[in-house]
Write a structure and sequence with these properties.
The protein has 279 residues and is α+β, with helices and mostly antiparallel strands. Helices cover 18% and strands 34% of the residues.
């Protein structure tokens, strides 16, 4: 069993979609521990690690828990409370990679034309325009603002190419969000979150969830679109070496387009995160 740093141990993590919890019992992994999920005699969800009862939260369509003593709540998403937004839970996808690698990939715009060709990007529009990096909430979060990228199909509801505005938010070491131009309502933004469940240092499960302004698209189509995008990413993630996240700059040389990645790695190092990190 790997040693888990206190920062990682104290975070909240999703385990499964609430709508999937139809069986009386299931088992999963979190930070090298076996986690048991079941319902008590009154039907309430309970989460156990061995004989220890863990805290339980139901939020954003997922079941959450923590192995430590959380000092912060599950990331707040005010848009989730807006009555005209659709909550779209996109399942849980296993990835043979460090959960930190999964978050970092989510922050990367440079791969859009080459991995998500003719959807999130296309040649020759490969430039990552300069954007801004800042910390917020007393250094507890990283934000990348003023991001723009040319996209042939920014969302399922998009009818043509647009220059999409992006804002990225790292809300916790294994939780990140994206705010982007909404094709159906250009004055507002769609929100896409990626919550990662680190199972072991080199294995994780990604839980994508979207908060959309889109009344027309069928639910199955929205889920399929997002899963298709993520499965393209999974091919890249599972072929990265090392599987662990290097925090030392000597292992991987960044470019100007990698400013979010550089900020994320420095932030992880400052917070003392070592789980999933290359020693």
């Amino acid at each position: 069993m790997s040693t888990v740093d206190s920062e990682t141990l104290s975070q909240w993590y999703p385990l499964a979609m609430l709508e999937d919890l139809t069986e009386p019992h299931f088992q999963t992994m979190l930070l090298d521990r076996f986690i048991d999920v079941s319902r008590d005699d009154q039907g309430a969800l309970q989460v156990l690690c061995g004989n220890r009862s863990l805290p339980v939260r139901e939020r954003y369509g997922y079941l959450w828990t923590s192995l430590g003593e959380p000092v912060r709540d599950i990331p707040s998403i005010p848009e989730a409370e807006e009555p005209d937004r659709r909550l779209v839970c996109c399942g849980s996808i296993a990835v043979h990679s460090s959960g930190l690698r999964v978050v970092e990939n989510f922050l990367d715009m440079a791969h859009f034309p080459f991995v998500h060709t003719n959807i999130l990007g296309a040649e020759p529009e490969t430039e990552v325009r300069r954007y801004q990096i800042e910390t917020r909430d007393g250094g507890e979060e990283i934000w990348a603002t003023d991001c723009t990228f040319f996209q042939p199909q920014a969302a399922l509801s998009a009818s043509g190419s647009i220059l999409t505005d992006y804002t990225y938010r790292v809300a916790a070491p294994f939780s990140t969000l994206l705010y982007k131009t909404c094709p159906a309502s250009p004055e507002r933004q769609d929100v896409i979150a990626l919550f990662v469940q680190p199972m072991t240092p080199t294995r994780s499960r990604a839980h994508p969830v979207m908060f959309l302004i889109d009344e027309a698209s069928p639910l199955e189509g929205l889920v399929e679109f997002q899963q298709f995008i993520f499965l393209q990413d999974r091919i890249i993630l599972e072929n990265q070496r090392p599987r662990l996240m290097p925090l030392d700059g000597k292992y991987e040389i960044p470019t100007m387009a990698d400013r979010s990645s550089v900020a994320y790695r420095r932030w992880l190092k400052a917070k003392g995160v070592t789980y999933g990190v290359l020693a």
